[in-house]
Amino acid sequence: MLIVLVTGLAIGSLYAMMGLVYNVMYSTSKVLSMTTGHLAMLGAVFGAWFMGGLGWPIWLGLPAAAAVGAAFGLLTDVVAIRRVITRSNEHLWLLSTLAVATMVQQAVGLWWGTEPRPFPRLVPQDPAGALDQKYWLPIVLVLLMAAGLGLFYRKTMFGKVFVAMSEDAFAARARGIATNRVRAMSYVISGALGAVAGFATGQLTYAFFAVGTLLTLNGFVALAVGGLGSNMGALVGGWALGIISMVASHYFGGEYQQTIAIGLLMLALLVRPQGIFGTRQVRAV
Amino acid sequence: MAKRFFGISPLVCLTTLAAGLLAGAPAQAQQPIKIGWLSSLTGPLSSAAIAENQGVQFAVEEINKAGGVLGRKIELITRDTASDPTKSVNFAQQLAFSEKVDFIIGPVNSGEALPAIPVIARAGIPNLIIGTLDELTDAQKYPRAFRVINTNTQWITGAQGYALDVLKRRKVALFGDTTGYGTATQRQAASFLEKAGIKPAYQVLLDPNKADLTDDMNKAKAAGADVIMPWSAATGLLARILNARGDMKWDVPVVGHPAVMALPIKKLLTKPEYWDNVYAAGYKSTTYDASGKVPQRTQALVDAIRPKLGGEIDFTFWWVALGYDCVHVIAHAVKTGGSTDPAALQKALETTPYAGVYGNYRWSATNHNGFPDGDIVVNRANSFKEGSFAIAPGAR
Fold it and tell me: Taking Cα atoms as reference points, which of A83, A6, A34, A60 lies closest to residue A219?
């Protein structure tokens, strides 16, 4: 049972990181980008290519993979967000981000191939059962990422600008904040974070072109359960989803894994639509 | 003047008609034989299709260079279905009704073939099937659809025979995946075991992207399993089974789907020795004999196609041989039938066998599965060399 919990915690950490990435983008744009899981896919694929294919060391491979994610984040903002949210109040960003996600997945499939490929070991360690790096790396990283984002929002001027935009983008703009630039920066940061998440969990997911869609979905489920906009919510939601999926698979078989995940989302939305740590939105009339 | 004109005109007409017919006959003879090639050259199921495409393209080039079939060149019309069943149906319709092809090869996997085959059958176009699900052929419902590849039943019975009769194992752990193919195949394997009087010690369906299978392997071990039989084509899942087994230091044999021998698996293994004691259903045509040689027809194709493949064969060669055979089966049917008339092609395939590289095919009016049971063998997974494998210990 220990291995079930450890695996659930590790995979839940990946979902939680996807939730954090959603939050960063959502804070400045109010968009839930369908490219979120694909950022992790890019991190795993490019990390495997840089380190496994080109033989780069980790100190070069990791920032390079993060840079690829950051570039894709910026591209997402330019191609799928900027024009769409300024010209339409409808949720057309759902379609535009889905289109970008589909295109990047197809492009990676054509270039990288459609079979999963190995991700190199990041730390010198023999296979160590439940203490193996493929489990503890994502768990450690998600804690660092959540703590880092917390400090960023509270202690840096740029982070406070993110918070200001999150609360009222129009008021922030009225006070002279270049909201377009801030939003673009949030997509760059989230791109880098998503890619680092994929890099750290590459040994679990392999470098596989089609893993993005699943991560987009499960990251969203984690966030919906935990509460949109809450980093603590993303953590709790991600871990809950990961552990429940693995326990369900242990007791009922793998065919119920996704059913459980979606069932959890439905239940959470019915019982507490704002999520565990979310705040109820009140619209002044 | 008018009388003279009318007197000559019938003669002129007849002469013109005769000249037209004489000129038209060779023109028709020179019309190409149009083959539609429905293949998933991109998308998640593209690996095998890309290899098959090498064989198809090579066979077309080879036949055309030799002057074609009955003096007619082959024109290959390729459509990439991108592993999408909807596209395969649309392209099947396009090939049948717009391109008016004489023959269709594909689609190349069962998921795409299931909806496309009825469409091709309704158009009356002869069709070569490259999907293993048993339901794909039916001589009554689809009288012009002929399977070139083996059936799922042949893979399962081949692997199961090895596990039960050669390795003498009785406590089987059956692993499948949650795709339509994985689920159906695991069910089929369970029913075959039941017929042999064996109830699986453990069986499970797994999400193909499940990140870790240690728990499932622990449960199989706790259930007393003495052989693991995975029925999935997902290389990631198969590699995770082998990695979990290796990390547990559990030396239980793994016998199952041919995908467990695919080269991408080797790259996904934590240690190379995790591929030891792994066996899968394979083919006589791509199996080395005791003297380390593959059958002569296979070697001839390997030698001929090697320059096209850049000198190195780093994928399972049976896919190339299968693609190559598909084109030659069509050439054989056209030669035997004397034309591209669909009824003549059907009769030709139902009444004459064809000895190919991948297999020795024999179809009949009631059985459109042409691949013989005897051409299936069990291979040792870690013996890959130049696209072929060694036979498993004790297998025949």
Answer: A34
